[in-house]
Amino acid sequence: MRIDLHTHSTASDGTDTPAVLVAKAAAAGLDVVALTDHDTTRGHAEALAALPEGLILVTGAELSCRLDGVSMHLLAYLFDPEEPALLAERELVRDDRVPRARAMVARLNDLGVPVTWEQVARIAGDGSVGRPHVASALVELGVVPSVGDAFTEDWLADGGRAHVAKHETDPFEAVRLVKAAGGVTVFAHPAAAKRGRTVPESAIAELAGAGLDGIEVDHMDHDADTRARLRGLAADLGLLVTGSSDYHGSRKACALGEYTTDPEVYGEITRRAFGAFPVPGAGGA
Known about the structure:
- The protein is of the alpha/beta class.
- It has helices at 18-27, 44-49, 84-95, 97-110, 117-124, 131-140, 147-150, 171-180, 201-209, 224-237, 263-272, and strands spanning 3-7, 32-35, 56-67, 70-77, 184-187, 214-218, 240-243, 279-280.
- It is globular, with a radius of gyration of 18 Å.
- The protein starts with a strand and ends in a 5-residue tail after the last strand.
- The model has no long low-confidence stretch (mean pLDDT 94).
């Protein structure tokens, strides 16, 4: 089985609609794909309606968290999307995205960049607006050559000149909320240093003690030495090890299935979850 447990659609900051994403996942030879848009489950219904026969969909979300001033992301799988406490927290995070993006536009204007809110809103479309949409606006204006080049201290990286913080959940609370909603939690790209500061391994150990299920090891932002170190850490802490593409369509240079998760780990994730269950495709609507 080929299993990719981290992808994004136009429901957040990907460039493929949920329907197109699942079609591409099947075409790429995946057996299982997880849709994990940022702080939202809005793309799930469309993905399920279009799910090709032979492809299994794992519903999920990537939750925005912050620990001791460091931004981090928590992948949540197979939780009940209507569980009130987790739903309220996701809405709190999402509601802060628009004023944050507007504030980043204002900072860029102060720096002499003629980006507008209308431009960013057009790029975001119906998705949950975020830094990648602002970054895409900078690419359109020729300020930076690629979205990745916008995530530097000069522009949008944590602590950068145009960065604005948003509401982010305490990861210990996020783990508790997801577990209470029947889901499974995996720390996304925990050592992606090029994105900014990362949390120390001691914090990962504390999260493991609080119920964290796993860490995403095989990821485009982890080199071979980092992946080896994280595997050792996961073994020491009894954490599951996942691998994923973090696919965003044309917004990032990664392909569906570029990294995958071991079928035994996927089986353990599904065994632990009780808020929702993987859905096999029946040929789409």
